[in-house]
Design brief:
This protein is an alpha+beta fold and 264 residues long. It has eight helices and 14 strands. The protein folds into two domains: 132 residues, Schlafen, AAA domain (Methyltransferase, Cobalt-precorrin-4 Transmethylase, Domain 2, 2-Layer Sandwich); 61 residues, no CATH class. 34% of the residues lie in helices and 22% in strands. The termini are far apart.
């Protein structure tokens, strides 16, 4: 990295992918994990939080020690790239961290992710979700404990079959139960979270966060003109949200001498 590039980055300040540290410390190691769990990034050692060039005493042993500390503190192990540049006679060590393919990366048993210009420790649910996402799985493929095929509304499944026939995309000759099995929504009488969200009788009973809250505000954003909480399956939610939006769209009519008016 040449001096002009380095100055430009420092002038822009810290970001989701840039961290300044006057010295290498435990927070710098935590940042390596946070970068690895997010989008990757660069740690500039020898630069203050305000972007002031401090510089570091450059010796081969300390830099190698930093690399070893990062490797020993992370699981899976992060092997950083190190770059040393000089600006105005002051040395800056840049620790380059790539986004890790299988997440999360632990730093001494804890998980961090980058949020804006800071590192935030992750909750157990965030850790689980990040891991599933990184291995191309999702929580909704797993069975719902305490729920069974009885919690599925078969009328909704039949409506899905009719809609498939109507659009011509799929010709389904199977029974509703067989459709659920082919979609991998049910396995040995256990239903998945996806099945509950799409065809469930009461999806919001275990998943309160799956409701959709619609509101229309005046321009000052403090007065609510209309309010609607939509608690149903995902397919019906899409329809209800569109109805809410259309209800509040401005419509005008133009008469051009034709039998039918023009709606805009």
């Amino acid at each position: 990295m040449d001096q002009d590039q380095l100055r430009e980055i420092i002038e822009k300040g810290e970001s989701e992918t840039v961290e300044f540290k006057e010295n290498f410390d435990k927070e710098a190691i935590e940042t390596t994990g946070a970068f690895a769990n997010t989008k990757g990034g660069n740690i500039f050692i020898g630069v203050s939080d305000k972007g002031k060039m401090i510089g570091v005493q450059l010796r081969k042993e300390p830099v190698n020690s930093w690399v070893n500390q990062i490797i020993q503190s992370t699981d899976p192990q992060i092997i950083p790239e190190i770059e040393v540049d000089a600006v105005d006679g002051k040395n800056v060590v840049i620790i380059l961290i790539k986004e890790f393919p299988i997440k999360p990366v632990l730093v001494k048993g804890r998980c961090f992710r980058r949020v804006g210009t800071s590192n935030r420790m992750m909750t157990p649910s965030e850790i689980s979700e990040m891991h599933l996402y990184s291995i191309r799985l999702s929580w909704d493929v797993f069975p719902v404990e305490g729920k069974s095929i009885k919690d599925i509304d078969m009328k909704k499944v039949r409506a899905y079959i009719r809609a498939s026939h109507k659009t011509g995309r799929r010709k389904i000759a199977d029974t509703p139960f067989e459709v659920l099995k082919k979609l991998e929504f049910v396995n040995e009488d256990k239903i998945t979270w996806a099945a509950l969200l799409i065809f469930g009788k009461e999806p919001q009973r275990p998943l309160l966060q799956s409701a959709v809250h619609c509101g229309r505000f005046k321009k000052d954003k403090t007065v609510i003109i209309d309010d609607l909480m939509i608690e149903t399956d995902l397919i019906s939610q899409v329809d209800e949200v569109m109805k809410f939006i259309i209800r509040h769209l401005s419509v005008r009519y133009e008469f051009e001498g034709k039998p039918r008016r023009k709606e805009i």
